[in-house]
UniProtKB/TrEMBL annotation:
Main location group: membrane
UniProt name for this protein: ABC transporter ATP-binding protein
Database matches in SMART domains: AAA
Stretches assigned to the ABC transporter domain: 5-235
Pfam families noted in UniProt: ABC_tran (PF00005), OB_MalK (PF17912)
Compartmental location: Cell inner membrane
Lineage: Bacteria, Pseudomonadati, Pseudomonadota, Alphaproteobacteria, Hyphomicrobiales
Assigned keywords, A-Z: ATP-binding, Nucleotide-binding, Transport
Species annotation: Pseudohoeflea suaedae
Length: 359
């Protein structure tokens, strides 16, 4: 895939604090890349470096094959959508969309055409003569996206654009952003701490931690084969369940339980005996009669029940620790119930105890 953005050996320091650490990243033309991570991991900082809002300490940034490391934001050929709408309250939406183009000396006819096209794509045509105060949060965010859209650039940067919206609006606008990418085929980089946004929007996800990229892969690859325990814990809700124990001769042993690993593929340096973490996702655990057909079964006590309608989440006490499972939405379990749960170790994830890298 032809690269749209290339980041090479990028570092950013604030005094002695290393915020970004020798990052290398290639983003393909027309790709939707999501930077995902918890607060303080460096994802927004990386986006601001690409946008030219922060000067890097070391490394280079290329956009469309052009070195823009020291170029001004206006010279980088990008459109940016911020967490705050940042609309001029005294202007109409049409005025907000056209303001930057007027300052850039774009002709009146061209401005009219770009505003019309952006409004049509974002379905905000009836709102153009209104001022921001007369709009809902979702409408304001669409207007903010429209302001980036009229710039007619190849790269769009989104910095947590949905975080100020309620859950319903977030879901609706998430769909609209995905449809926008399908229509435009522009390169898009999207920052979020919300794994649902990342999994549903991205072609690839870069999971960041401490200024480094832990894993860069498709959503399915990250879910199915997390490279380390941190990524495994970060992706999935509820988080993956973990047992601490030891691998010995194709078996995992923890207090009160020995599990065969016949169906688990171990590779590389991790394919050795020793202390390890055994992880299993809540949705890969069966309960009731279905559990009896599984290679591994455990007796558990229900500690907490969270009915979600389509699913029921249950937190159990098993093997001296808390353990989450995802059940059918019609499941009838209560605090204190005794359950048998089961799973197939072939669907598990093993990580070295010391390095926390995937085995």
């Amino acid at each position: 895939m032809e690269p749209s953005i290339s980041i090479r050996n990028l570092s950013l320091n604030f005094g002695a604090l290393k915020v970004l650490k020798n990052l290398d990243l290639e983003i393909g033309k027309g790709e939707f890349l999501v930077l995902l991570g918890s607060s303080g991991c460096g994802k927004s900082t990386l986006l601001n470096c690409i946008a030219g809002l922060l000067d890097v300490s070391d490394g280079q940034i290329f956009i469309g094959g052009r070195n823009v490391t020291w170029a001004q934001p206006s010279e980088r050929g990008i459109g940016m959508v911020f967490q705050s709408y940042a609309l001029y309250p005294q202007m109409t939406i049409k005025g907000n969309l056209s303001f930057g183009l007027k300052n850039a000396g774009v002709s009146r006819d061209e401005i009219e055409e770009r505003v019309r096209r952006a409004a049509q794509v974002l379905q905000i045509e009836p709102l153009l003569e209104r001022k921001p105060a007369a709009l809902s949060g979702g409408q304001r965010q669409r207007a903010a996206i429209g302001r980036a859209l009229v710039r007619d650039v190849d790269v769009f940067l989104f910095d947590e654009p949905l975080s100020n919206l309620d859950a319903k609006l977030r879901a609706d606008l998430r769909v609209e952003i995905k449809q926008l990418h399908q229509k435009l085929h522009n390169t898009m980089i999207y920052v979020t701490h919300d794994q649902i946004e990342a999994m549903t929007l991205a072609d690839r996800i870069a999971i960041m931690r401490g200024g480094s990229i832990m894993q860069l892969a498709s959503p399915n690859e990250i879910y199915m084969r997390p490279v380390n325990k941190y990524v495994a814990q970060f992706i999935g809700s509820p988080s993956m369940n973990f047992f601490q124990g030891t691998i010995e001769g194709r078996r995992f042993m923890t207090e009160g339980l020995t599990m065969p690993l016949d169906g688990y593929e171990m590779t590389g340096a991790g394919a050795k005996d020793g202390p390890a973490w055994f992880g299993i996702r809540p949705e890969h655990v069966a309960s009731g009669e279905a559990a009896n057909a599984m290679p591994v079964t455990i007796d558990a006590t229900v500690d907490l029940v969270e009915p979600l309608g389509s699913d029921t989440l249950a937190r159990l006490e098993a093997l001296g620790q808390l353990f989450w499972i995802r059940m059918d939405g019609q499941a009838t379990v209560e605090h204190g119930d005794k359950l048998t749960i089961g799973f197939d170790p072939a669907r598990a994830h093993l990580f070295d105890e010391k390095t926390e890298e995937r085995i």
